[in-house]
# Entry
Amino acid sequence: MRVLTLLFTLLLTPSLSWANMEQFFAELSKLVPAERQKKLAAGAKQEGELMLYSSSGLEEVRAITKHFAGKYPFVNTRYMRKGGSQLFDVAHLEFNGQKRIVDVYWAGHSTLGPMVKGNKQMLARYLSPDRASIPEEYRDKEGFWTATRISVAIFAYHSQRVPKDKVPKIFTDLLNPFWKGKLAVDTNPGRFTAIVVERMGWDKAKEYHQKLGQQDLKIHRGRTARMQLILAGEVLGSLDINADNILDMQLQGAPLEYAMMDPTLLSLTSVAVPSQSPHPHAATLFYDFIISKEGQALLAKENNVPVREDVELADKTLGQRMKEARAQKKFVVDSPGTYDPAAEEKFDRLYIDTLIRKK
# Structure
């Protein structure tokens, strides 16, 4: 009897194919909210596990999985963290080898972008009911991904040593002689060149990079290291510092301030479901949870910028500045849908040749 019961359980929770995953979601959509939630909870309790693949920071992953486990204690939540492109490589190898391990992705454009642009068979389309509360620019029209939080890449500077009239409003302000020898940039190109090209076009962006490279830049890897340089007085400002990093330092009393220049990059961390999730009920619960008002409020509490319009930022000043910047159309959004490896290689080469190696 125990053997038959086990066999029946396995048949109820198979590793679903791409088509079957989408059929699973289609059947869910026919249920009223209460019945839908009851079915998901019962199925997740039977599955008993969830495997999350993420490129987010360790503390962030621990926090969100802890809250999810508190809400659904019958699901044993595990996770694996790797850098964006490395995480894609692992997921791609597992998919090609038909190893059904991951249940849900929580990652940025360098993980999900290659899936969306050239490997859509790795993902299932899912239109969670909670997507209605998220702006269209933060969710894929087809349902392959939904943003969960926003990383705001801004200019950080020493609040006590930079005069108000020298605080940059646009990137060309950094060519002012005041900033010569006082700017730090990362060894990693990131998305800086991409947003400059977005605003200026290739030729003017190239000319700008060449001029910026003559500003005696201080080159250091990592946002924390560059913020420490500002606080030590070795530089007065740095490009591409995340807003949450600055807010954390401000809470510790650090004399750091930030400028939301035109343009400002918004990088999305999104959630997506693989086409072969071994625990589809648990995966769906996690997806719904992280974009729900409850999940978004938990992210906001940790100084993350939520994507839902009905959840406010914990830092009211940042929230107001973002509203003003949005009204002024300063934002460029970096999402899985904007992934373009050929363009990124071209942008990275310009950054390295003009700012790092200075050819």
Notes: Residues 1-16 have pLDDT under 50 and may be disordered. The longest strand covers residues 146-158. The first helix runs from residue 2 to 12.
